[in-house]
Predict the structure of Cysteine--tRNA ligase.
Amino acid sequence: MPLYSSQNLKIYNSLSGEKEIFTPIHEGNIGMYVCGPTVYSNVHLGNVRTFMSFDVIFRYFLHLDFKVRYVRNITDVGHIVDDVDEGEDKIAKKARLEQLEPMEVVQRYTVDFHDILNEFNFLPPSIEPTATGHIIEQIEIIKTIIDKGIGYEANGSVYFDVVKFNETNHYGRLSGRNIEDMLANTRDLDGQSDKRNSQDFALWKKAEPQHIMRWPSPWSDGFPGWHLECTAMSTKYLGNHFDIHGGGMDLKFPHHECEIAQNEACTGQTPVNYWMHANMLTLNGKKMAKSTGNNILPREILTGENTILSKAFSASVARFFMLQAHYRSILDFSDDAIVAAEKGYKRLMEAINSLKDIVAGTKSTIDIPAWKQLCYDAMNDDFNTPILIAQLFEGVRFINLLKDEKETLNTEDLKSFVKAIHNFAFDVLGLVDEKVSDSSNDKLEGMVNMLIEMRKQARDNKNFALSDQIRDQLIALGIQLKDGKEGTTFSI
């Protein structure tokens, strides 16, 4: 029997503003779409926190034995600066400033994005589509919206008619906004805009002569609107109606609101059952911003090359720190906070590592099944990682009592306890035991040094064929040797 059948999971749905019992559209299967990064700069720490929230959600679904199709896109068209319909494309602007091709910018920062997420032990999504790889699908959606009378072409651009859509639907339902208030609180069009209404948004923009990124369409050589790409990719891989759509709180309006409108205009049905939004990350009590210097990149945390933290911190410590707050809560990052998190992380890892020394008794004096269910209850309550961490430290207390022989567990309960604490700490929360990693690195270094010594002996014996074979096989494994006056060193 799958594990999910014995658990009662509730998710906070941004659409209703309430926690709701999670019921997938197809039993045992989940379709989840999360808005990915716009790859025009290094991934920032707030992005990491958002994607980490959904990484844990993905991990917990897998732990519950769900089959999950997790789609997280890459925005490589580069939506307009300031996320409005006028101005310069973010990726094109970066390419112009650095004198690069736009796809060089995309490649550089996509690699950075993946490298950082790998450092933080993220599971890869099931599918990672790109906006530029789905231009045809976006054009087809625009055609459908025009045919339905909700889209209109003006001077080579195409816009979504929000007022027309709102006659039969509710634009603003997700963000709690009213179309009349939105129209009243925006300035009148100055006569130079092609829009019929101030709230209308671009489905397709005609490219100006200087615009680098452009594609042919029935209306003009141009590029798709920012909101359209997620509608195209989510529906292509998850269908017109799927379970979960997630992203940062800042995307709720206008991005996700516009996605809902586009989907409903095309299909006549609501696209998503559960909308989920992760909250923001602040630094020393203030909003992170490069312009003010109140900013730190994920890699700067790992290297210690910054003016904000007292030293470098591992990715697993940073991950543990972020998961100490609920994903819907604002989290403030500071040196004091991550120093405290490092102490807690080490305490947890030391306790888990000491489990191997505990010997089972004849009876159990701790109720392990009840403790395990409290761990599940935490995650079943809208993925409440801070409560789960509190339960893991209750497990640490159990470990200390067992070590001091003040409590005992029989063989079955001890095995269940060890498995559960490993599952929640490593599989669900995605933590990594650094001591285990360090031990693995020590073993690797010892083996490579042994091969280097064997190579040296082969060279001293003028057995150059064996010497070259050792070198070539190490290179094939990604290990480079460097011969110098002080001897041979290696790098990975």
Q: What stands out?
A: Residues 175 and 252 are 6 Å apart (CA to CA). The mean pLDDT is 91. The first helix runs from residue 45 to 63. The longest strand covers residues 242-248.
